[in-house]
């Protein structure tokens, strides 16, 4: 997240949070719900502003900023908390998660290369932040987020993807830019 420390934090950013090895973890509603709950918590309690988002099977795109310029700290805490919650859910509900042993093995394997990860590594380290410093870039990234499930062949219209700001019934509270 150090890439945000060097940036102008008064502007929104296009951010991508990716699961290690691009593992398709967000194919289960329970894991998506944990992401939404955590984002809503950060919005309500930590000053996170989310303008657009989409939860794809292996990653999350969003346009976000923070009220106090601490976006890097919010994302750090969000990633840490959601990783622990989802890994706990996988371990405790193995009867519902047919891939639990494989998933835990993959997260454990990825943690071996980073000292700060105790046992598991869920998220890739970088967030690939892109500063949205023009209306053109904001429009381009908004369209990318809204059409990502369509381009991936998951739905025929972005409005049909449940975990997206393109869906009028989205479970996440987003703000207008």
Automatic annotation (TrEMBL):
Q: Which residues form the Transposase IS200-like domain?
A: 8-124
Native source species: Roseivirga seohaensis subsp. aquiponti
The domain of life for this entry's organism is: Bacteria
This protein is called Transposase
Q: Name one GO biological process term.
A: DNA transposition
A GO MF annotation of the entry reads: transposase activity
Q: SMART domains annotated for this entry?
A: Y1_Tnp
Recorded coiled-coil stretches:
none
InterPro entries the record matches: RAYT_transposase, Transposase_17, Transposase_17_sf
